[in-house]
Design goal:
The protein is α/β, with parallel strands linked by helices. Helices cover about 45% and strands about 20% of the residues. A five-stranded mixed beta sheet has the order 4-3-5-12-6, covered by helices on one side.
Length: about 300
């Protein structure tokens, strides 16, 4: 009989295309992923994934069984969520997924209040730019600055995140204030990587400063912050991150940067689990209290 862990590994590699990303998704080592894939091939007598220079791709045999394995996964996850939903203990692990700087600067202090109330609950905070799947139990709770589009997810808008333009005093002394009504010619930009530039603040920034030169791109807000502080260019940063930082001046564009909603999502099957409800309550309370920092009115 085929091993379910081997089949889950097959699905993860098929979805992510490489062992390292698949291993991160299942929270195992890359070596374990490779061993499971080889075991699956040995037990089944068929090669389901083929390694290519661009990553793993499905073989014809893999394409034929993919749908069946996905259905097996959906049923197994439904059973797991049903069992979790019946767990009445205010203890155990709750996985919370969000993005890195926001998780470190905003959510971690909020979750300290959870530990004070319910010391038996252990939070595992996963910070990544990718969107996790609550249906596949990649997390129990997700906090995002984008709307959810997953089936069977209960979503609540928990606040706003404001953005603004910043530059280092040394940069401004060298280049002067940017003419943002003319596209900031002669200036340099610190911005998001191309795969993230479609975010509302990224589109607004690139349109506003269309004549400036991009000199630094990162998917990390902390990296953008440090690059802006170092005088590399003008950055569009969350106000909670940049307002309190030394060595930055907030600029006055002709129109304010768009804010983004903060959304909390939980799967419908597990939202009533006491430990997950406790996490949701603390997150909602904490984000309401943090509103003056996340979206200042000045």
């Amino acid at each position: 009989m085929l091993d379910w862990d081997d089949l889950r590994s097959f699905l993860a590699i098929a979805r992510h295309g490489n062992l390292s990303a698949a291993a991160r998704a299942l929270k195992v080592t890359q070596t374990t992923m490779g061993r499971r894939l080889q075991a699956l091939h040995d037990r089944s007598g068929a090669r389901l994934l083929q390694k290519t220079p661009g990553g793993f791709v499905l073989t014809p045999a893999g394409e034929r069984v993919l749908g069946a394995v996905e259905r097996m996964e959906a049923e197994a996850l439904a059973v797991e969520r049903a069992i979790t939903g019946e767990d009445v203990r205010l203890e155990g692990r709750v996985r919370v997924a969000t993005v890195e700087a926001f998780g470190a600067r905003i959510l971690t202090p909020i979750l300290a209040a959870l530990h004070a109330r319910h010391p038996g609950i252990v939070v595992e905070l996963d910070t990544d730019t990718r969107s996790v799947s609550l249906s596949r139990r990649e997390a129990d709770v997700a906090v995002r600055v984008a709307e959810f589009h997953q089936h069977d997810v209960v979503v609540r808008r928990a606040g706003e995140m404001a953005f603004a333009l910043y530059a280092a005093p040394a940069y401004l002394a060298l280049r002067g204030l940017p003419d943002l009504t003319a596209g900031a010619p002669g200036h340099a930009l610190v911005t998001l990587q191309e795969d993230l530039i479609g975010m509302p603040e990224g589109r607004w920034f690139s349109t506003l400063a269309h004549d400036a030169q991009t000199v630094f791109l990162a998917n990390s807000r902390d990296a953008q912050l440090r690059a802006t502080q170092a005088g590399m260019g003008i950055g569009c940063l969350p106000r909670y991150l940049a307002d309190a930082e030394p060595g930055l001046e907030r600029l006055a564009p002709p129109e304010p940067a768009p804010s983004r909603g903060i959304w909390i999502g939980v799967h419908a099957d597990t939202r009533h689990t006491p430990r997950i409800r406790a996490v949701l309550e603390v997150l909602n309370e904490g984000l309401r209290a943090a509103a003056p920092v996340l979206a200042p009115q000045d």
